[in-house]
Design goal:
Blueprint (H helix, E strand, L loop, with lengths): L14 H14 L8 E2 L1 H8 L3 H14 L2 E4 L3 E4 L4 H25 L5 H13 L3 H16 L5 H13 L1 H8 L6 H15 L3 H25 L12
Antiparallel strand pairs: 1-3, 2-3
Helix pairs in contact: 1-3, 2-3, 4-7, 4-9, 4-10, 5-6, 5-9, 8-10, 9-10
Length: about 230
């Protein structure tokens, strides 16, 4: 990976978060590609920091699924394949539809306002990181109403693993009318206490997301010309 000039960091954010944000932008935009090595010393020079916040940034990106850490080889960019994406969403569609179905059965009038407040915030959000956070809060807040703790834990773990896909997709821009409509339909189905409609709306939402994220992944460059050191 070529070493650029020192890049200033935003003063309002912690150093590790700012470095993670810069690298995330490089990955989602395709400037860093699958297999590229992320060298601590080079990145420390790029951002004019010690290697400690760089390591912390790697840990943040590893949690999001965008970076893999190897004991011997260090950090490398990880961009999931279309096949992995499809498998994740097949499993998620089954589990999340079930959770939405159970949530609809348990839904009360008091459950709607907090979820609607999240959807309202998503409708005006233009920051991809914030949008992904709000999206996760909406879905998990809804699924917790299913009162199936093990099911909710499984979904939470799968959604965490899917973070890399959503980071790439969110780079295309948020929010969207499609997402607003789909989220609103899921909430409306639960408010109507209609479990079949809630499950169907959730499956449709995830199927549509799968289609769009697949398109985004297929648009990404696959060669390594001029960037990094592929393994």
């Amino acid at each position: 990976m070529a070493t650029p000039e020192v890049e200033p960091l935003p003063a309002a954010r912690t150093i590790a978060l700012a470095i993670a944000a810069a690298l995330r932008a490089d990955i989602t935009a395709g400037r860093l590609r699958a297999g590229d090595r992320l060298l601590q010393n080079e990145l420390a020079r790029r951002f004019d920091v010690s290697t400690t916040p760089v390591r912390e940034a790697f840990a943040i990106l590893q949690h999001e699924g965008l970076v893999r850490l190897h004991p011997q080889r260090g950090a490398t960019v990880f961009v999931p394949s279309v096949e992995e994406l499809q498998e994740h969403y097949e499993i998620r569609a089954a589990l999340e539809a079930l959770a939405a179905e159970k949530a609809a059965l348990n839904f009360t009038a008091a459950d709607a306002p907090p979820l609607q407040e999240i959807l309202d915030a998503m409708g005006s959000c233009t920051d991809p990181d914030r949008y992904i956070e709000l999206n996760h809060r909406f879905h998990m807040g809804l699924y917790k109403l299913a009162r199936r703790a093990r099911l909710v834990d499984l979904i939470d773990n799968l959604r965490g693993i899917s973070g890399a896909y959503l980071q790439i997709h969110a780079a295309e821009g948020v929010p969207s009318d499609r997402l607003d409509r789909e989220h609103a339909e899921i909430l409306a189905a639960c408010q109507a206490r209609d479990p079949e409609r809630a499950a169907s709306a959730t499956r449709h939402h995830l199927t549509q997301t799968l289609e769009h994220v697949t398109q985004d992944l297929r648009k990404r460059p696959t060669d390594h010309d001029d960037i990094g050191n592929p393994l």
